[in-house]
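Dear colleague,

Thank you for sharing your sequence with our group. We've completed the structure prediction you requested, and as agreed, I am returning the results in plain text so they can be pasted directly into your records. Please verify that the sequence below matches your submission; if there's any discrepancy, let me know and we will rerun it promptly.
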Amino acid sequence: MRKICINEDWKFYKNCPSIDKIGGECETVNIPHTWNNLDGQDGGCDYYRGATTYIKTLNIEKLEDKDYYIEFEAVNSICDVYVNGKKLMHHEGGFALFRGNATNLLVNGKNEIIVIADNSPNDYIYPQMADFTFYGGIYRDCYLIEVSKSRFDLDYYGGEGVMVTPTINGSVADVEVRSFITNCKPGLKERVVITFCDELIASELVDAGEVVHFSIHSPKLWDGLNDPNMYTAQVMLVENNKEIDRRDIDFGIRSFSVDKDGFILNNRRYPLRGVSRHQDRLDMGWAITKSEHDEDMQLIKEVGANSIRLAHYQHNKYFYDLCDRNGMVVWAEIPFISEYLPKGNDNVKLQMMELIVQNYNHPSIMFWGLSNEITITGEHDELVGVHKELNELVKSLDKTRLTTMANVTMLDTSSELLNISDVMAYNHYFGWYVGSVEGNAEWLDDFRKQYPNKPIGLSEYGCEAILTWHTSNPTQGDYTEEYQSYYHEKMLEIFDTHPYLWCTYVWNMFDFGVDQRNEGGVQGRNNKGLVTYDRKTKKDSFYIYKAHWSTEPFVHIASKRYVYRAEKVTKVKVYSNQPEITLIVNGNPLETKKGKYVFEFDVPLRAFFKNEIIAVSGSLKDVLVVHRVRKPKEEYILKQEESTVSNWFDKDGNKIEFSYPEGKLSIKDKLSTIMANPEGEQLVFSMVEMAKQELAKKGQELPIKITKQTFKLFGNMTIERLAGMAGDKLPIEVLKQVNDELNKIDR
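Please find the predicted structure tokens below.
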């Protein structure tokens, strides 16, 4: 098989919906490409979603004894491909590889390839509602494949045509190699060779398509971060002693399981302490290259994570390869997320088929994720039924791995959904959207008492930090780097006291694009990352995880971007995995402290001069420069004009004014404060009923089930902040009306 990359020199026509309507402005682009790299990250929920056209002229010399495929690693989300004016294939779903046999459509010489890529909203392809931008385009590599008439299968859901299944029995590993042959002829043979670090382990010549088993005694295990050993299965199709097709499959031998006390890898406890990842990048969207994948992996390795939840869709095969080689345990999933689509059952099964068939051989993948927060729009029998069918589908395709689910906080722990997958976890944001950070421990303790033998994990947790905002007194919801650090310090303390959690995944490793968001003075972004969207800045919270997880010696002083401080004595935090830190202030030793992970010092600041603060541990050091000022710097404080509401304008372009009279309620009050007032509670319930009635007229329902528990969970959030989470979906006039009504109620 020969693969020829055809990424270069495509003609791109935006807003061009079909092959017979090609026209308008054209530009030459290279693949990977997206048309939403800028408008998908700037806020307003107005990024272009529609059909576009790509055209490629391809010169080839066809050989009579070969077949030719055109392969796309991903196109979002509906794709039609034409070769020389005739339709080759149609694909639905924006994250999986797909290919088509174009042999009969291609000619010797010049060929025209036309791709119609469409990320328009619809009601049957997942995802349609999610907290990330749905970037359109041919955003992963594309290839022309030349292959023998007899070959390993290329037509089954984008797979490789070879499946390698290792299992362990005591000190012996059984390696099953199963191949699928197209045009299998009498006399066709298959040679299977197993190697380890180029050393021959086993070899066998069999009839093509025959299942081969090898026994490997005392195998070198794929052992996570400790030693991710990889074997290679070279599988060759042989005709008359000549190799006509080949696959080189890297695989790993390992055992794993989950019980009530956590995750087990190769018969030892191995708590999964990891991060979640989205694939987009500032000014690039999803159209990233191997260089960006490599940088992401290096940052994840540096923070010390041993596991990655690759959310919320199938990621690039290259990144799964990186996970294999770097010892990352992977939770892989499909975009069955947020909103159930009654017409989408076939599509969700298709995406699961593609995910598993295409990624079956990766040893890093140990969990197939069925869904994420899918009950946000309600729980019902049909949804339960689809999960059961999906779980059965996974088990029919792969008997070696575990299924899992990521559940929204509001899902009752007695739900039938929680008993479908092998294991499950919850997405909890106590301490950010709802409740307090201590609420995470309270919820876990309650769950443990109620279900002492049921494994439990945290599939998401996190809070936002925007590098602009700083304070000496961090509070929930202030978007400061200091509160995010405090939040993650407390979460890590909770994990230390709850070691039975089989998984914990920070949401998120990196900031990512969400064009409908408008929070904390930043539009179009989810800022929960430990690292900024451009990967150039590691937030302070990155280093608290590095202190807990990494063995690489380091010292880091937090709040370096908080330079100007209006206090005589300031608190300085140092994160380190070293046992002792000495602080030197303006050239003089201040104090030496022994401790673990977090070291806090009270540092007197001299006025009118800069203060140089150095943290030292052995040969390691880090420097902070602070200037003492008379009053807090306004540029560190999230101002009213930068808040959610004041960024919105009415239809005529005139700003709508909101009033916040002293002693009266407003949308800037927390929901708990409003609900504590009988008039406020009545107003909130009346608003909910009005919303239900308005949506019912359109045949719709509220996106979440509203109960007293819901109000309790969201009690720490202001109405303004809740509105910000809805982006531009909530009309400004409605919010103004709510604020006016609240202004009539005494605080």
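Summary note from our side: The mean pLDDT is 93.

Kind regards,
the structure core
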